[in-house]
Amino acid sequence: MPKLPIYLDYQATTPVDSEVFARMAPYFTEHFGNASSKVHEFGWKAEAAVELAREQVARLIGGTPRELVFTSGATESNMLAIFGVAESWLQGARVPHLITTAVEHRAVLEPMRELERRGCALTVLPVDRYGRVDPGDVRRAIRPDTALVSVIFANNEVGTIQPVAEIGALCKAAGVLFHTDAAQAGSCLEVDVQALGVDLLTLSAHKMYGPKSVGVLYVRRHGPRVTLVPRSFGGGQERGLRPGTLNVPGIVGMGAASELALRRRAEDRARISGLRDRLWSALSSGLEGVTLNGHATERLPGNLNVCFEGVPSEAFLMDLRDLAAGSGSACASGSGLPSHVLQALGVPETLSRTSIRYGIGRGTTEQEIDYAAARSIEAARNLRLAVAAGGSEEASLRTDGVRR
Ligand SMILES: Cc1ncc(COP(=O)(O)O)c(C=O)c1O
Q1: Virtual CA dihedral for 274, 275, 280, 282, nearest 10 degrees?
Q2: Which residues line ligand 1 (CB under 6 A)?
Q3: Cα of 73 from ligand 1 centre, angstroms
Q4: Given this model, what pLDDT does residue 336 score?
Q5: Rounded distance from Cα 166 to ligand 1 centre (Å)
């Protein structure tokens, strides 16, 4: 019997790896200096640690250390990329046109919509039923006034991986800047800014076994040199793009997590995708009316998003207290709103309200997967019976008797 509850929400966040934590710890207590204190040992130690982390992240993504800006996470990195490019156009008295997709995280969609409210032009591209954007649609949407294309690397809800390299190549050919939110990809996919033709790239430490509230924005310096207008002003840290005292322990954690990802990602990818396939095979062979959301093969190794026809996901998750899985995205769950991602894939609203996201990661075992499959099948069957017997979601929970 595995230890309960079983964590199956690795797209929401990951635990800090013990190796990462061990490297961070001294920077809270012993080496607590301010990386901007240039005149003593404490400051030099902190600065050296930040610069080492910059090199570690740069190695992971194929950039150079000077092209990285440390932020408070993917939300801030996305905001800096999108507003930073748009503002640089607006300051040159040009109104930018922006392109994105219907399956972005809200951390991209919301800044895009805010810029539209402020007078910028916005195109939101549709995706196919697997959640992939057609690079041809991107090419056709580019206009002479297009400033930026932003396409999520791998979707946080359904796991679909976009044809990023193809989009990067066509943006380069058109002379348009290209940003990708790679928050979900950092821990296990190859993310090379050169091979992908990316000008701006977002990462988040807590999605890759690092600490929360630390992220990175990669900003290309050559071919082309990207100019961003900062979002905040102050002490001039991070070349003025992200002023404020640096979160040294967090940045050390981001660097260590990047080093670990580079070392482990091939092995993790193979093992974790094997567990995902095992879960899907158990669910789909053990139960009628289950459908996979997202792309069958072009998907995050650790993501399995499934609709259980006739089983409302809120009731399902209440019943499955021994599994910590997600319904919709971490940010949207609890909002009561249907997932904009499933909507974009054309999943009917009633069906989309039965979706469960199983997020599998480094700590997941086969035993946990087998338990999760058996419990999900049992709970889905019980809830279907209760619904068929005319009970409400509440009644269906009562028939089971226990809230685990
Ligand atoms: C694709 C994507 N982008 C952005 C974010 C926001 O990340 P952060 O929590 O680092 O701000 C998330 C987190 O769910 C995400 O999955």
Answers
A1: 110
A2: 73-75, 105, 107, 152, 156, 181, 183-184, 204, 215, 330
A3: 7
A4: 67
A5: 23
- Look at residue 210 and give its three-state secondary structure: coil
Among 79, 105, 216, which residue has the most ligand 1 atoms within 8 Å of its CB, making it the best to mutate? 105
Q: Where in the chain is the domain with CATH 3.40.640.10?
A: 18-261
* pLDDT single digits (tens) 340-353: 999 999 999 999 99
What is the secondary structure of 309-326 as a DSSP string? TT--HHHHHHH-TTEE-B
The residue ranges of the chain whose pLDDT is under 70 are 328-336, 391-404
* Strand pairing category for 97-101 and 121-125: parallel
Which ligand 1 atom sits closest to the C-alpha of 213? 10
Pocket test for ligand 1, best of 152, 156, 331 (most atoms within 8 A of CB): 156
Instruction: Give the catalytic positions in this structure.
Output: 331
- As a whole number of angstroms, the distance between CA 322 and CA 300 comes to 24
3-state DSSP assignment of residue 17 = coil
Residue 328's pLDDT is: 62
Distance (angstroms) between ligand 1 centre and the Cα of 76 equals 9
Q: What pairing do the DSSP bridges indicate for beta strands 303-308 and 290-293?
A: antiparallel
Q: State the span(s) of the chain assigned CATH 3.90.1150.10.
A: 6-13+265-400
The CATH architecture one would assign to domain 18-261 is: 3-Layer(aba) Sandwich (3.40)
How far apart are the C-alpha atoms of 369 and 373, rounded to whole Å? 6
**Where does 6-13+265-400 sit in CATH, by number?**
3.90.1150.10
| Cis before 111? omega within 30 | no
Confirm if 283 and 294 have CB atoms less than 8 A apart.
no
pTM of the predicted model as reported, rounded to 2 decimal places: 0.95
How many other C-beta atoms lie within 10 A of the C-beta of residue 50?
23
pLDDT for the residue numbered 334: 57
Residue pointed to by tokens 């404020």? 244
Quote the pLDDT of residue 337: 78
